């Protein structure tokens, strides 16, 4: 008989240790250590004797069928999925509290019900009365035909779903589901992973498409074990600031399409509204030349988004000048400031620096380095950059400006929006464009060509 060993595991991060502790050794959470029994394992010889031979097939003998999707008729959501929902797939939708996950799920149900798709909505957080109030706000009669299951017992949900056989199963949310066969309270690692495994198995065996709504931690990750993201086919994050109407839906994992796709929504009183042309949302309708403002074109997945970056530099009265950034990485800002001081010979070390990306957009790609630097130089010298100019480029530590990817798509978008000039890296291959190109090789050349300073 195999010996049983005792191990201790954190219910928050799944870190394990040989001894009990009041505080987790990894995530520092208090009161999360649980005792678990671990078998010593079976010898290899016994395992080989107990196992049965399985059938091995050649890949060429597998019949290749094109994946059939059904569209939600919400183009921004379908874009992130790669064209629509795949039957039998599991989609994990995560986001901060109040960002609009349940509203988006209800709007997906609303759109599919109009196409006569059978949907089962499992309500683990809200009562049917609360869901009806939300449906009335969306003002659609089709939602009155939505089937609601107000239950958090996993076994009841599995049995009901297998009997109903819906085309789409929506779980709101996975952290509220309780599995009587697993240890722990709802939301714990054991409960979340066990419930998710059973639900994904149900989706695969009964060919039911499923949307799991998940909470996120304060660090911005899906609450529960990381294994949860490995179980599902698609992982989507719904992002947005609490006091901003903008919502970005990002695909970080997709077995049926590309990743890093982005859908853009605007939260309104009637729910989530699609933004077909995000550039209009991030650009001022009355674009004018102002000191401290620069325009750029960034890539969000496969789409180009034009936006405005604003900078304000003012003489600091503090021993350590302040650096504040909204929508742009603060560490990247420090890097650009160091380059401007070293290679641009600009006195930015004595300035308070404030950076803002208009519209609540968050920028992470290096192609935005050049417009950020341009806006700061403009504010420092109190000299406006022409509103006809857009800039893209990555800044290196030696002050050089490096080429960016997918330049032709960026150029086409800014040309369509009415811009006439573009500041680009000297080594950039522009292809065919009607834009007037201003090539700059480094920071000094940028300052000289745009501001007339040597």
Question: How is this structure best described in words?
Answer:
- The protein has 454 residues and is an alpha/beta fold.
- The chain folds into three domains: 39 residues; 202 residues, P-loop containing nucleotide triphosphate hydrolases (Rossmann fold, 3-Layer(aba) Sandwich), CATH 3.40.50.300; 171 residues, Ribosomal Protein S5, domain 2, CATH 3.30.230.
- It is built from twelve helices and 21 strands.
- The strands form five sheets. The protein has a nine-stranded mixed β-sheet with strand order 6-5-7-8-4-9-10-11-12, with helices on both faces. A four-stranded mixed β-sheet has the order 13-14-16-15.
- Strand 7, helix 6 and strand 8 form a beta-alpha-beta unit.
- Helix 5 runs parallel beside helix 6.
- The longest helix is centred in the middle third of the chain and has 18 residues.
- The radius of gyration is 27 Å and the shape is globular.
List keywords for this structure.
single chain; 454 residues; alpha/beta; Rossmann fold; Ribosomal Protein S5, domain 2; 3 domains; nine-stranded mixed sheet; four-stranded mixed sheet; 12 helices; 21 strands; 27% helix
In short:
The chain is α/β, with parallel strands linked by helices. 27% of the residues lie in helices and 26% in strands.
């Amino acid at each position: 008989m195999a010996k049983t060993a005792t191990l201790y595991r954190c219910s928050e991060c799944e870190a394990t240790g040989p001894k009990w502790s009041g505080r987790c050794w990894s995530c520092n959470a208090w009161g999360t250590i649980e005792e678990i029994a671990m078998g010593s394992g079976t010898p290899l010889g016994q395992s080989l004797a107990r196992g049965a031979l399985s059938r091995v097939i050649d890949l060429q003998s597998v019949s290749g069928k094109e994946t059939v999707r059904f569209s939600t008729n919400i183009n921004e959501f379908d874009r992130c999925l790669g064209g629509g929902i795949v039957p039998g797939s599991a989609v994990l939708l995560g986001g901060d509290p109040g960002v609009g996950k349940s509203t988006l799920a209800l709007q997906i149900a609303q759109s599919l019900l109009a196409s006569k798709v059978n949907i089962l909505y499992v309500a683990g957080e809200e009562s049917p009365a609360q869901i009806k109030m939300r449906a009335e706000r969306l003002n659609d009669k089709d939602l009155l035909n939505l089937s609601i299951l107000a239950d958090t017992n996993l076994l009841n949900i599995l049995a009901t779903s297998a009997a109903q056989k819906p085309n789409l199963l929506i779980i709101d949310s996975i952290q509220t589901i309780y599995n009587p066969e697993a240890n722990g309270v709802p939301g714990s690692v054991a409960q979340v992973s066990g419930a998710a495994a059973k639900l994904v198995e149900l989706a695969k065996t009964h060919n039911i498409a499923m949307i799991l709504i998940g909470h996120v931690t304060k660090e911005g990750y899906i609450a529960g074990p990381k294994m949860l993201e490995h179980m599902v086919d698609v992982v989507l994050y719904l992002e947005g600031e609490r006091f901003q109407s903008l919502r970005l839906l990002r695909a970080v994992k997709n077995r049926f399409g590309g990743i890093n796709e982005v859908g853009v929504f605007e939260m309104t009183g009637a729910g989530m509204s699609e933004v077909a042309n995000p550039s209009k949302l991030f650009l001022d309708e009355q674009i004018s030349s102002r000191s401290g403002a620069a325009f750029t074109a960034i890539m969000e997945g496969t789409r180009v988004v034009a936006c405005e970056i604003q900078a304000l530099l003012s003489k600091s009265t503090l021993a350590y000048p302040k650096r504040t950034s909204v929508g742009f990485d603060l560490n990247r800002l420090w890097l650009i400031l160091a380059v401007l001081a070293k290679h641009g010979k600009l006195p930015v070390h004595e300035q308070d620096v404030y950076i803002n990306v208009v519209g609540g957009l968050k920028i992470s790609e290096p192609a935005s380095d050049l417009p950020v630097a341009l806006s700061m130089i403009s504010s420092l010298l109190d000299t406006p950059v022409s509103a006809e100019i857009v800039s893209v480029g990555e800044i290196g530590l030696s002050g050089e400006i490096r080429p960016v990817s997918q330049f032709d798509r960026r150029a086409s978008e800014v040309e369509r929006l009415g811009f006439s000039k573009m500041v680009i890296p000297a080594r950039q291959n522009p292809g065919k464009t009607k834009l007037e190109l201003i090539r700059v090789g480094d920071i000094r050349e940028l300052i000289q060509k745009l501001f007339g300073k040597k």
